[in-house]
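WARN retry 2 of 3 for item q-0093 after timeout on previous attempt; input resubmitted unchanged.
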Amino acid sequence: MSPIASLLTCVALVLGLMLLGSGAPARRSPRLSARLDPYLRGLEPRLTRLLDAEQPPLIRAAALDRLLRPFLDEGGRLLERCLGGTAGVARRLREAGLAGDVARFRAEQTLWGLLGFAACTLLGYLAPAVSGGAPAAGGTAAGVLGLLGGVLGRDWRLTRQVERRHARMLEELPALADLICLAVTAGEGARAAIERVVARTHGELSRELGLVLADLRAGASFVSALEHLAVRVPVPQVVRFVDGLVVAVERGTPLADVLRAQATDVREQRKRDLIEAGGKREVYMLVPVVFMLMPVVVLFALYPGFVTLIQIAR
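OK item q-0093 returned
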């Protein structure tokens, strides 16, 4: 049997044993929710199936998702015990606009880690086989690195999602502030202005303002609802925007002037950020000029003279 076939057989055997172990009776004891469900079912009947918040599967193939989901959930719980940081992960999930399900995120990390392990292990064993050498322990080391890279890669992707969502909010903030300012100038109150703007706009910050309205309908005060917005979106510009609204409402400052000033400040900050980013790009543009074009120019300029000197020396 070839080394590749042996490796695949061992991997399949290990996965099968792990699946059998995760499904053993000692490890699948019913949880508290499962034990109480028969007694509580029917006390609060659902009026519509639209209220069921079903999450998309981790794997697009439904059969494969049902087969591997217990294993991925068990791996996610193992990752949670090893890594911890549940509060930080839940906070970043909320900032990314995702459902704050830490268990699902850990399961996704497990899936990414397994994919990285499989890919790097195959590459680690295929490379010596293609080059004609014997498979060495480098394949196992590559698999471990792939496992770590997959787990950390999912965490890095979550960070990127948070950064992109914050950037979209900063782009939407000046326009929303101007729209609220126009509504307030027309004679509407702060809450009515936010309701009008949320009903006619779409975007990340508009959804967050919709959550502010939901808090207001639930009985929270205007100031506390805005403070919850600042907690959910810890972007400095949004926090200053919320602080300006809170101060204007509490002290009676003209709200239109505050909103207009907030929009102007955000636009000026955006211009400064673009100028700073442009300055960094200019420095990055020097890299190919200095390390690629300049050596070629020097080579074309000096090589003929160097060849001529060699011929004269002969």
